C-alpha cells in the first residue's frame, strides 16, 4: 500500500502545480463526501425523531432546515484544517482560504441560531396565548444582536484582529458614522424591516394619501421607493416613509381572489310604507321573494295572535313594509348572483337615516379582483336595484335640481291657468 502511495506521489515530483491541484481536488472531494454523509444521516435521524415527537409539521420543517444548514459546517471545517496540508500552496492563499472558511462557519452558525429562534416562534405561535402576546418583536431583536455579533466576528477574522479591538474602534466612530450616514442607516433599517415583515413587495398596490401615492410599486431600493400611480405618474419617496407613515397595501385583497363592494342606496323616507295588497300580489310573482313571504307571514301571524287580542296591553299589529321586503330581495339577489362570493359576508343593512334619506348598504365580495370586471359587476348590480325600486313603491333620494323646480313651476302655471278658466266660466254663467 505504501509503495503504491509513493509511486503515486512520485508522479508529481516534476509537476508541483499538478500536485497542488490534485491535493485541492482531493480536499474538495473529501469535503463533499463528508457533507453528503452527515446531511443524509442527520436528516434521517431527525425525521425519525420528529415522527415520534409531538412537534407540529411547521416546527419539524424548520428543524430540518437548521440541521441541513449546520451540516454545511463540516466541509468548511475540513477546509480550515486541511488547507495547510496542500503542498506548494502560497501562505497568503492558504490564509485567505482559512479566513473565508472560518467566516463561513461563523455565518452558518448565526443563521442556524436564527433558525432555532424561528422554531421557537413557530412553536409559540401554536399556543392560544400567542394571539394576545406575540413574541415576534423580541425574536427580531435577538436576531439583530446575533447578526451584529456575527458581522463583528467575520470582520475580525478576515482582518486577523481581535474583536475587542474592532469594537473599541467602532465605538469611537459610531457618532460620526451615524451623523454622516444618517439617511442611509435609517433606510437600511427600514429596508430590513420591510423585507423581514413582508410589508411591501414589488408589484403590490399601495395607497399613501400623505404622499399622493396610489398605484403599483415598481422599485424598492435602499433609499427610495417608486410607485406608478394609476394616472401613469411616478411617485418617489424615501424608503423609511413606509415605516413612519401609514399606508394601505391591497395585496391581501388580490391574494384573496375577491374584492369588497360596500355602497349604499339612499331611499326617500317619504316613500316608505306598509305593503298594500296590490303591491303584495305583484311582489309575490318574484321567485326570489317567495320564501321570504312564507317565513314572514308565519312570523307576523304568530305575533299578531299574541298581541292583537288586547290582553297584553294596547293592540300591536305587524305588517310587511316595502323597505323590508326590498332588503330581503336584495339579499336573495346577491346570494344568487354568479359573480358574488357565497363563502364571504353578504349583508344588506339599514344605516342611520340623515338629510339624504335612509341608506340601504350593500356589503359583499366579488369573485374577481380585476378592476374592470369588478366595476362592471358592481355597476350591473346597482343598475338593477335602482331600476327595480319602483316595484316596491320606493324612490331613491335626490336633491332637487333645476329640472325639479321647472316641473313645479310648470305645474303651478297649469294650475293657475285652470283656475283662471274656471273663474271665466263662472263669470259667464253668472252674467247669463
Verbal overview:
The protein has 432 residues and is α+β, with helices and mostly antiparallel strands. The protein is built from 15 helices and eight strands. The strands form two sheets. The protein has a five-stranded antiparallel beta sheet with strand order 4-3-2-1-5, with no helix packed on it. Strands 6-8-7 form a three-stranded antiparallel beta sheet, covered by helices on one side. It is elongated, with a radius of gyration of 39 Å. The N and C termini lie far apart (153 Å). 12% of the residues are buried.
Largest beta-sheet characterization: 5 strands, antiparallel
Task: Give, in spatial order, the strands making up the sheet with the most strands.
Answer: 4-3-2-1-5
> What value does the Rg take, in angstroms?
39 Å
- What would you call the structural class? alpha+beta
Beta-strand percent range: 5-15%
Approximate shape = elongated
Mean pLDDT value: 78
Helical residue percent band: 55-70%
Report the end-to-end length measured between terminal Cα atoms: 153 Å
Helix and strand pattern: HHHHHHHHEEEEHEHEHHHEEHH
Q: What is the tally of beta strands?
A: 8
Number of helices: 15
Low-confidence stretches: 1-9
Topology:
Layout: H1 2-10, H2 16-52, H3 57-70, H4 73-82, H5 91-125, H6 136-159, H7 163-180, H8 182-197, E1 205-208, E2 213-220, E3 224-229, E4 234-238, H9 241-244, E5 248-249, H10 251-256, E6 260-267, H11 277-284, H12 290-307, H13 322-335, E7 347-350, E8 358-365, H14 371-388, H15 402-431
Antiparallel strand pairs: 1-2, 1-5, 2-3, 3-4, 6-8, 7-8
Helix pairs in contact: 2-3, 2-4, 3-5, 4-5, 5-6
